[in-house]
Write a structure and sequence with these properties.
Elements (H helix, E strand, L loop, with lengths): L3 H21 L8 H11 L6 H12 L8 H18 L9 E2 L2 E2 L1 H5 L1 H19 L10 H12 L4 H11 L6 H26 L4 H28 L2 H4 L5 H4 L5 H5 L1 H18 L8 H12 L3
Antiparallel strand pairs: 1-2
Helix pairs in contact: 1-4, 2-6, 3-4, 3-9, 3-15, 4-6, 4-9, 7-9, 8-9, 9-10, 10-14, 14-15
This protein binds geranylgeranyl diphosphate.
Geranylgeranyl diphosphate binds next to α4, α8, α9 and α10.
């Protein structure tokens, strides 16, 4: 259950991230203006800012100053936005609605949306490169962390498996592999980068990695459930999409009830792995609880 103070924490942190994103991203008036308008249109479309919040909460759990993790927090959100812009293209998931607004290609055209995604991906690394190095983690460690997660081994690899799996009946194990690559990897990296930015010990990074992997899978199972149980208006993206394109989902493979139970078990597992942070990990703990109960 989300308390009023946690709801305020979420909205204050999202606003804090938005101000930082505004500072990092090229202004609309910079030429060529269309691409910068498209980038800002997509980034400021009203996402939950889950990845940056995880990044900042991880820095806090490790006892660090959250401002140190802000470039990493903005970098993961910008990279996430690129993946959404490209995923919505007609040659991918072909969607008209994202974050409650017409998708980038609907407003700016397909060509500009491809370039917008490319520019956001590149911009994410430019933003990440503004992180202050720490005694344990030099700049190459930050860059490698994000590059490994966003490349063909994880994010893009997950999309490849997803595309190739369309219309086929996948096993639960195959679906878990896709969910881990497409979703859990970037959530985990968000946490790891936040911890690295405040010079966390390898043991703390390990605990956050376990947390992210379980939380990420739970998050995607909930996403699959919401796709069948919620309306387009509430989700801000087209509901029932997965079933329409015969995509393998958790509810389709194991049923709704079992999906809910598995998400709850994974969330418990995630919470258990951050017990080592004690009171400092409270926001991470509340986030896991909030994500399990989310309705959009
Ligand atoms: C590189 C094209 C390309 C794809 C990579 C990440 C991805 C694979 C595709 C994006 C679409 C998708 C269904 C991703 C799964 C993760 C997920 C549920 C994303 C939505 O995240 P939220 O709910 O979105 O945090 P907001 O809009 O709130 O930020």
């Amino acid at each position: 259950m989300s308390t009023p103070s946690f709801t305020k924490y979420l909205s204050d942190t999202a606003k804090h991230v938005d101000r930082a994103l505004d500072g990092f991203l090229p202004k609309e008036k910079i030429a060529p203006t269309t691409i910068h308008k498209a980038m800002r249109y997509s980034v400021f479309a009203g996402g939950k800012r889950l990845r940056p919040i995880l990044c900042l909460a991880a820095a806090e759990a490790c006892g660090g100053e959250i401002e140190r993790a802000m470039p990493a927090a903005c970098a993961v959100e910008v990279l996430h936005t690129y993946s959404l812009v490209h995923d919505d293209l007609p040659c991918m998931d072909d969607d008209d609605l994202r974050r409650g607004r017409p998708t980038c290609h609907k407003v700016f055209g397909d060509g500009m949306a491809v370039l917008c995604g490319d520019a956001l991906l590149t911009e994410a690394f430019l933003i990440l490169a503004q992180t202050m190095q720490t005694p344990r983690y030099r700049m190459d460690a930050f860059i490698k962390e994000l590059a490994l997660t966003s490349g063909s081994r994880h994010l893009i690899g997950g999309q490849v498996m997803d595309l190739e799996g369309e219309g086929k009946s996948l096993t639960k194990a195959q679906l878990i592999l896709i969910h881990k690559a497409k979703t859990a990897a970037l959530l985990t990296t968000s946490l790891r980068l936040g911890a690295m930015a405040v010079n966390a010990t390898p043991a703390k990074i390990e605990a956050l990695t376990t947390f992210g992997q379980s939380l990420g899978l739970a998050f995607q199972i909930i996403d699959d459930i919401l796709d069948v149980t919620q309306s387009t208006e509430v989700l801000g993206k087209t509901a029932g999409k997965d079933a329409n394109v015969a995509k393998a989902t958790y509810p389709a493979i194991v049923g709704l009830e079992k999906s809910r139970k598995e998400a709850a078990v994974l969330t418990q597992k995630a919470m258990h792995s951050i017990a080592v942070f004690g009171k400092k990990g409270e926001h991470l703990h509340q986030l896991a609880d909030f994500l399990l109960g989310r309705e959009y």
